[in-house]
Amino acid sequence: MTEDGAQESTKTRSRDSRRAWIGKSVAWAIVLVGSLLAGYAISGEYLYHGVIGLDSSAFPAGDWVQRNLAPNAPNAVGGAVAAFATLFGIGVAGGCLFAWLRREPAAANVPSGSSARRAFLAGAMAGVGALFAGAVGMLANALFGIGKSGDGWLGVGQQVNSNEGVVKTHPVWEDAWRGARVQAYGRLGRTDWRVSDTVLGAGRLRGDDAWKIVKTAFDRGVNYVDTAPDYSTAGSELAVGRALREIPRDQIFLATKFCTPLGHLPAGTSVARYREVVEESLARLGTDYVDLVHVHSCDETARLMDPNVHEAFDRLKEEGKVRFLGVSTHTPRLVDVATRAIDSGRFDVMMLAYHHGIWPMLPAIIDRAHDEQDMGIVAMKTLKGAKHKNLEGFHDANSYAQAALRWVHENPKVSCAVISFFEMQHVDEYLAASGGRLASTDREVLHRYDQAIVGSYCAPHCGACLSSCPEGVPIHDVLRHRMYFEDYRAERDAMERYAKLPVNASACVGCSAPCLGSCPLGIAIPERTRGAHALLTLGA
Ligand code: SF4
Ligand code: SF4
């Protein structure tokens, strides 16, 4: 070869190698940027919503995944499964894309096996790179909320775990309460059970040690426990079931609900499914029967009187798996639901939102249920919003919880009061109020509490504002979930519940707010609902 020819050949090789380098860089850039975006938009969204705890049906094959892989998991695991499955897909697609972009014509002097091996290795490396970039995108979305208007799960998670605010019902665990026991039992209507005036509400129990609170309450004379599959996404039933191993089963009146760990069953659910969810509860509770099964948090007469739920109850009762039927309700349609329940004669127990300052019509409903049908009446929401953060000022006064419980115990037609136990202090604090009479100091505490919650307490029975909203926002539910988040400090449960609302408060952003002024309790509805939406959706 001449000198000129050699130089030309060197230049050509250098040009080819520069082109190859540029081509390879472009291919890498396409794969990495594409994977980053796909990871953000697809895997990140699945993970983000999975962490919030949307219903399993919100994800591809979500119901199947939940049922077969993690029936007792605290979240819709379909979100996480979909997130990681799509991430894997991004890795494979990235590797294939890179191999295609970098495909080379077969060279005569290169063995085909070696060329295929090189292509495979390059594709595999690109696949790993794509997987990594996709994971970065996914975490940027779900964990850090980059590109969203609020924090991702990390920011809210820190807030959730920060223990800010007063979590306890009273800031001091007084010595005088220690060792308190149940002092009074009342007849639970036609069930003929004599139940403790204080009922262990198990709604916030979860975790390995929660059962010890239940067991301690049993040891102190509590003989009625109220749980549900959707309390702590099955964690409550598991904790109660663990405690039940420590005490003869027939000494406890055990109530659960017709629902699943992920939410309520709509009217029209099949008889088989209604039966199945009770069987699942029995398995979690480790027992072969429950005393009471409620139509849970019932806000419509169609669900209350669904023939399928009644047929399922009758068959379960014949089989000895349930003993009594109940209904729990605290919604704006409480009057309709409660009236229909009384008229039907089908229900043995009614659990109602009932607390100091409740609207005057409720005692009349309780009288009817008690006098006409001999129904057992269980008061719930006894802490009237449980504005624990507002109780700091009561440090030197009586326990607000005790005053609120004594107020409920004053009504002889109310069999008992359910209240959430989720700290060992509660056993002492609540039972110290058992059998007590309402004192003037209690009335003062209740009055101060009412003053403290003006403008933020949404009454569970009310609903006066609902017709003012053209978007159909369930204002009472939105504010109730905000209450669970801010006041009960049950942030995760609140977000899970909010995520399941068919209509949420996203419509409030930018709305001209015709609802303003419609609340007789003076709540600035648009401000509260917008705040609720920001709080309960990770600021999405
Ligand atoms: S601010 Fe919200 S609740 Fe009020 S009318 Fe508008 S959408 Fe409805
Ligand atoms: S916001 Fe006011 S009017 Fe609306 S349900 Fe609550 S208390 Fe009633």
CATH level-two architecture of the largest domain: Alpha-Beta Barrel
CATH class of the largest domain: Alpha Beta
Query: Structural class from helices and strands?
Result: alpha/beta
**SSE arrangement, N to C:** HHHHHEEEHEHEEEHEHHEHEHEHEHHHHH
Cofactors, ions and other ligands in the entry: iron/sulfur cluster
Count of alpha and pi helical runs: 18
In total, the number of strands is 12
What's the domain count? 3
For the record, what is the CATH homologous superfamily label of the largest domain?
NADP-dependent oxidoreductase domain
- The largest beta-sheet arranges its strands as 3-4-5-8-9-10-11-12
CATH topology category name of the largest domain:
TIM Barrel
Radius of gyration: 30 Å
**Biggest sheet, in brief?**
8 strands, parallel, barrel
Helical amount among residues, as a percent range?
A: 40-55%
Mean pLDDT: 85
Alpha-carbon distance between the termini?
69 Å
Q: Identify low-pLDDT runs.
A: 160-167
Query: Which range does the strand content fall in?
Result: 5-15%
Net shape: elongated
SSE topology:
Layout (H helix, E strand, L loop, with lengths): L2 H50 L9 H8 L8 H24 L10 H31 L10 H8 L24 E3 L6 E3 L1 E4 L8 H10 L4 E3 L8 H10 L8 E5 L1 E2 L2 E2 L6 H15 L4 E6 L5 H4 L2 H12 L3 E8 L4 H11 L4 E5 L7 H13 L2 E5 L19 H10 L6 E5 L3 H8 L8 H13 L22 H12 L4 H9 L25 H12 L4
